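Structure tokens please, single chain.
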Amino acid sequence: MNPADALSAAADPVAPIPRNEDGAPVFTAPWQAQAFAMTLALQEGGLFTWTEWTATLAAEIKGAQAAGDPDNGSTYYQHWLAALERLVIDRDVITPAHLKECRDAWDRAAHATPHGQPILLENDPHY
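Here you go.
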């Protein structure tokens, strides 16, 4: 079974991955595909098992629903990213403070990037 199929098999009972009519994953923004790819790479690298991944994703979704998430699929990859962030923090790959610094840098870069241009970290005025 290839890694993407293994991920799907693990996630589908808990939180099925959005798919098109051909069965391929659907991403509405590039960051979603990137988060998907990072998840595959980190699991293949041994950072977590699919069981750990699905438990973390399920916990993120459950917590968001308890906080009023619309549960209509529009926030699926936000929960995906939150689960990925939680795992890399829990495994001491990154600290919460460093993760916040990275988020802030990308946010500043996005605001400093002219419309229609690629967002590059180098565009962060504090970089």
